[in-house]
Design brief:
The protein contains 10 helices and 12 strands. It is an alpha/beta fold. It starts with 7 loop residues before the first strand and ends in an 8-residue tail after the last strand.
């Protein structure tokens, strides 16, 4: 498990999230989708922790489990030292005020019948304890904080561009002064021209408000720029984790190497070799007994097919779960 240099705000210990599969034979063996399987990691306080991996690997499910939106099948989740998985539903709702999410699609995450004031003030209304004047003052403050103005107070989501809608979503997410924010691919549904603006806004808010981010993304170039720490996920498992610069400069897991080889390089003289993976991605219902990546790994041997690799320290700040780490 990756241990950060600073005190962790969120700690995940051996967490699994399995979903039962309906149907099949009446007396057959019950099957499960192992969306997250025995994951451990620490998210340092005040930093941006990156989580990368291909679609369907379990990134969002892990984030939902941390936020309490999905109950883990096993393991423990700690927030500020408090075990969230041991809390009652009422206690979890209290803790959730400090943990919020920015969703991938800014349009579908906003109620089209609500104006901007209603969208941003709704969390405060649910929490209670605020007058109409206090909520309006806070909403206006948040609008200016995310780059909008008071003139937008009574407009509707359909009146805004995708980037502006995401700003509204960010304002709503920080309305209750959260300490931890999950950014679930916050720019992937936006035009490329506004990617940098939204990322810059998130970094500015982190500096001003001291928020800790879990940043989920497919864009490895962005993760390299904004995340001091990163975890690489495949089929519900963490393949490699640790210091971002160390992993990008010296990827040890074959899956990480294949991901990094796909990153667009603007250097026309670069000799970087593209790694094309062969084989089929295993079903999360029927994960291999050994390494989950063994059906696609060009280095896979008999041990890889039989024994699940454990995450071990390869070098300072760098953990890898592989029997044969190193260049392909």
């Amino acid at each position: 498990m990756y241990e950060p240099h600073t005190e962790p705000l969120v700690r995940v210990e051996d967490v699994s999230v399995h979903f039962p599969v309906r149907g099949g034979l009446p007396f057959g063996k019950k099957k499960q989708v192992k969306a997250v399987d025995h994951i451990s990691l620490c998210i340092p306080k005040g930093e941006t922790f990156g989580l990368v991996g291909e679609s369907g690997c379990g990134k969002s499910t892990l984030a939902n489990a941390i936020l309490g939106m999905v109950r883990p099948t096993g393991g423990k989740i700690f927030f500020r030292g408090e075990e969230l998985t041991a809390l009652s539903p009422k206690e979890l709702r209290r803790a959730r005020r400090e943990m919020q999410m920015i969703f991938q699609d800014p349009f579908s995450s906003l109620n089209p019948r609500f104006d901007v004031y209603q969208l941003i003030s709704e969390p405060m209304l649910i929490r209670g304890g605020c007058s109409r004047e206090d909520m309006e003052k806070r909403v206006i403050e948040l609008l200016y904080l995310v780059g909008l103005t008071e003139d937008d107070l009574h407009r509707y989501p359909s009146d805004f561009s995708g980037g502006q809608r995401q700003r509204i979503g960010i304002a709503r997410a920080i309305s209750l002064h959260p300490e931890f924010l999950v950014c679930d691919e916050p720019v992937s549904a936006l035009d490329v021209s506004v990617h940098a603006q939204i990322l810059e806004l998130l970094m500015d808010l982190q500096e001003k408000l001291g928020i800790t981010y879990l940043f989920i993304s497919h864009n490895l170039a962005v993760v390299k720029d904004i995340c001091p720490s990163v975890a690489v996920m495949f089929l519900g498992h963490i393949m490699e984790t640790g210091d971002t610069k160390t992993i990008f400069n010296n990827p040890l897991h074959p899956y990480t190497q294949s991901l990094l080889s796909a990153v667009l390089d603007l250097d026309v003289d670069s000799t970087k070799k593209r790694i094309i993976l062969k084989g089929e991605v295993p079903s999360p219902i029927d994960v291999p007994s050994g390494c989950p990546f063994c059906t696609r790994c060009p280095k896979a041997g008999e041990r890889c097919r039989q024994e699940r690799p454990k995450s071990v320290l390869a070098e300072p700040g760098h953990f890898v779960a592989c029997h044969q780490p190193g260049p392909l």
